[in-house]
Design goal:
This protein is of the alpha/beta class. The chain has 3 domains: 180 residues, Jelly Rolls; 106 residues, Immunoglobulin-like, CATH 2.60.40.10; 253 residues, TIM Barrel. 16% of the residues lie in helices and 33% in strands. It has 8 helices and 33 strands. The chain has an 8-stranded parallel sheet. Strands 3, 4, 5, 7, 8, 9 and 11 form a 7-stranded antiparallel sheet that branches. A 5-stranded mixed sheet has the order 1-2-12-6-10, with no helix packed on it. The longest helix has 18 residues. The chain is globular. The chain starts with 5 loop residues before the first strand and ends in a 32-residue tail after the last strand. Belongs to the glycosyl hydrolase 2 family. Keywords: Glycosidase, Hydrolase. This is Glycoside hydrolase family 2.
Length: 613
């Protein structure tokens, strides 16, 4: 059967004009046929200005003077309470507490008895440091953490029966700082203050939180997919979570995306596993003959139903969609399914946009003629990746960057990368990853062997463990060469000028293989690298028309003409793709083509679509 989105508190999934299927009401890409209860809504709220809450045991009991709506940011919650706390923002460090009560619903047994199921609380995203108590008892995440670090991905807590009551109190402490070692993208820090291209902080309780029933022995809500299209194989990476060791069967069935479980599956495979208590990653391969490949022209998707079956026949199930595709970078071009594809890209910064607004932006970017969106050093709602899969939009995603380079920032960067990978690697739309952007958080990339070694090792790690992606070491300039080999699958450059004549000169020099004087910094650092058209060239940022003090077009018609002229120059050269900057206005950056609220275009449809040579 399909997941029914059964909800303890009757919150409905919704549809829009573009979709035949209901939108998953939970911010995750993998589905479960279980019941859940959204804990969104009004929470008690306190700003802990002097960080006294832990010393005074607020988790055991505290009088909260304010209310705040979850999900929402610390910043807006402080503003709403500013008359009482006499502050409208925070500097250097912020600590806030949230609390709410909930009545324990009847546990979903799925016909197997209470012993097979337990309750779990999941935070869609929250941070940067999060601690959670239930009825005064500190919870540990499924990953066995007392404190969860990170603010872009989900994390969960299993609730033992000894923790639970009929009426329960959930307490959350969130702490964040301006620490430049934390992955923060374009949010301000101790190094980069707000203004220009640096944005206000947006942190805290930023995505939904929900209570759900899960099986004691189950598959976790994460699936990785690697297509081996030449051999008609699909490699699935799954994660088991086991409380009761024993023999299990991992059963995979593949259907057309909109097919029913009563249909004949396209493929069925059983894999016997002896599993110990704890968590285990398991890689299995399924043959899928004559499969249709996924591409922007034909975004064909399949549906995976994965079940973990114990010796008594009890079933734990998850469901995800996936597509088969192959991406390569060689010579002049990027190849998708062995066909060269020009990347008509646009830079996208979601900022504080809601899920519904981001949806509108994605439809608008496709109307502009884009086949690729570069999601710029930010985490987004996982359902957006599903939308890109359905629309046939290629995605270029990036790790939110720290703002200085040292061992701690590199450790935080790698942890954020791994958290993001665990939740994104099922999507055929995601084709490119950037490790860093413009050497933010790696400013010593040209001179520090430790920084270079970390990036090189991470590049190799991605190729070995996540071969379904292209990897860019440092987008824009200062790509690393070791022994004459570029440690990036693409040679990317950020080129900004409002003048057409200068634009032509820059593109000519880029195509010629000039390293110096093209972008703001040298394109390659480390050992000499001789271009010789070995690696595809991507102008991964250009335009900026409308940015303060930048110059260029003065009205919409002038901007339209300039964009068209600049695009023609790009396509006249051996360049594999480009990324216009940018999709929407955000804070001081007033160079967008899409209304951030309505999704309406300020330029003609199809403007960024390249015409064939």
């Amino acid at each position: 059967m399909h997941p029914t989105y059964r909800n303890f508190n009757l919150t409905e999934s919704h549809t829009d004009a573009h979709r035949a299927q209901p939108i998953n009401p939970l911010p995750r890409a993998v589905l479960r046929p279980n019941t859940y209860m959204l804990l969104d809504g009004e929470w008690r709220f306190a700003l802990d200005i002097d960080d006294r809450g832990l010393r005074e045991n607020w988790h055991l009991g505290h009088t909260y003077a304010h209310m705040a709506h979850w999900p929402g940011s610390v910043e807006e919650h402080i503003r709403e309470a500013h008359e009482q706390v006499q502050t409208t923002s925070w500097h250097d460090k912020v600590v806030v507490w949230y609390e709410r009560d909930f009545t324990l619903p009847e546990r979903d047994q799925n016909g197997t008895g209470l012993a097979q199921t337990l309750f779990q609380i999941t935070f869609g995203a929250c941070g940067y440091e999060t601690r959670v108590w239930l009825n005064g008892q500190l919870l540990r995440t499924v990953e066995n953490e007392d404190i969860h670090y990170g603010e872009y991905t989900s994390f969960s807590y299993e609730l033992g029966d000894n923790f639970l009551r009929t009426n329960n109190r959930l307490t959350v402490r969130i702490a964040d700082t301006m620490d430049a070692d934390i992955p923060r993208g374009k949010q301000e820090s101790l190094v980069y203050k707000r203004g220009g291209i640096w944005y206000q902080t947006y942190t805290g309780a930023v995505r939904s939180v929900w209570l759900e029933t899960v099986e004691r022995n189950r598959l976790r809500s994460r699936v990785g997919v690697v297509s081996i299209v030449e051999d008609e194989l699909v490699r699935f990476n799954l994660t088991t979570r086991i409380h009761d060791p024993g023999l299990y069967t991992l059963r995979l069935r593949v259907f057309e995306k909109n097919g029913l479980d009563t249909d004949t599956p396209l493929a069925t495979e059983d894999f016997p596993l002896r599993l110990e208590a704890g968590q285990k990653n398991q890689r299995v391969v399924v043959e899928l003959p004559k499969a249709r490949l996924w591409s922007p022209d034909d975004p064909h998707l399949y549906r995976l139903v994965a079940q973990l079956i114990d010796e008594t026949g009890h079933v734990s199930q998850i469901e995800a969609h996936f597509g088969l595709r192959k991406v390569e970078a060689r010579g002049c071009c990027v190849y998708l399914n062995d066909k060269s594809v020009y990347l008509d890209g646009i830079l996208y910064q979601p900022g504080t946009s809601t899920f519904e607004e981001i949806e509108r932006h994605f439809y608008a970017m496709q109307k502009l003629g884009c086949n690729m969106v570069r999601v710029h050093i930010a985490g987004i709602d996982p359902r957006i990746y599903n939308l890109a899969d359905e629309l046939g939009l290629l995605l270029w995603v990036e790790v939110p960057s720290p703002h200085r380079s040292n061992p701690q920032s590199r450790q935080n960067h790698r942890a954020e990368l791994d958290r993001m990978l665990s939740l994104i690697e099922t999507h055929p739309s995601v084709v490119i990853w950037s490790l860093y952007n413009e050497d933010w958080g790696a400013e010593d990339i040209a001179t520090n062997p430790d920084t270079q070694r970390y990036i090189i090792d991470t590049y190799h790690y991605m190729h070995i463990n996540h071969p379904q992606f292209l990897v860019v070491d440092n987008d824009g300039w200062k790509h690393i060469s070791l022994e004459g080999r570029l440690k990036s699958d693409l040679l990317t450059a950020h080129l900004y000028t409002p003048e057409l004549a200068h634009w032509r000169t820059l593109l000519d020099r880029l195509e010629r293989g000039d390293n110096e004087g093209v972008a703001v910094h040298p394109l390659v650092v480390g050992d000499p690298f001789f271009f010789r058209k070995q690696v595809p060239l991507i102008v991964s940022e250009w335009g900026g028309f409308g940015f303060a003090d930048y110059g260029g077009p003065t009205d919409a018609d002038d901007r339209t003409d300039r964009i068209r002229q600049f695009k023609e120059e790009l396509r006249a050269r051996s360049i594999a793709g480009d990324v216009y900057t940018q999709a929407t206005n955000i804070e001081d950056e007033r160079n967008g083509l899409i209304d951030p609220y309505t999704g309406e275009l300020s330029v003609p449809e199809g403007l960024l679509r390249s015409r064939p040579r």
